[in-house]
Amino acid sequence: MSGLIVFGAIVFVVYWSIKNFKAGGVVKSVVLEKKQYLPYHAKKYFFSQSEQQFFNILNSHIDAHRYTIFPKVRLGDFIDVDHQDRGNRTWWNKIRAKHIDYLIWDLVENKIVLAIELDGNSHNSEKMQQRDKFVNELYIKVGVKLERVNVGTSFEEESIRLMEML
Fold first, then answer.
1. Whose CA is closest to 107, among 63, 57, 72, 140?
2. How far apart are CA 61 and CA 67, in angstroms?
3. Which SS3 state, helix, strand or coil, does residue 144 take?
4. 3-state SS string over 63-131?
């Protein structure tokens, strides 16, 4: 009887070895990964209708050999908190989620020469007016020229005016 148990154990070990070892003697490891639920999807549009229209017109007037347009850039990507205040997250939190509609980058000078914000009806609210006041002061502080363009004005005329400023 004990011989039968030993024989059964040997058969099991051989079967298990054949099933679980590859030709090179490396153990196959099977990791069953549970997919994490992520509640995200790609937006249908990157720009609002006004942003797309303005971008197209602005892009048609820009000297592409000298300048390029960066749309929807977070303020935290080009503005930093002063070294002595970095420990106070309040200052970082005030800019980290905000963005500018367009930055004009000078390819020759290697710097930002203009920031452009489209102001639609949402900018009429008290909350947005407070935000706009902060942003206006911020741009003055960091030395970047900010121009605001009202939605509903002639984007063609505004684009020409802005390109003449460069």
1. 63
2. 11
3. coil
4. CCCCEEEEEEEEHHHCCCCCHHHCCCHHHHHHHCCCEEEEEEEECCCCEEEEEEEEECHHHHCHHHHHH
Closest alpha carbon to 116 in 64, 67, 80, 45: 67
Tell me the domain boundaries of the chain.
Answer: 49-165
Residue reference for tokens 């400023």: 165
| Alpha carbon 143 to its chain's center | 23
**Closest Cα to residue 119, out of 161, 63, 158, 76?**
158
- Mean model confidence pLDDT for the chain: 85
Distance CA 132, CA 62 (A): 26
| 42-45 LR contacts (CB < 8 Å, sep 24+) | none
Q: What span, in angstroms and rounded, lies between the C-alpha atoms of 12 and 37?
A: 39
pLDDT tens across 110-150, in order? 999 999 999 988 778 888 899 999 999 999 999 999 999 99
37: DSSP letter? P
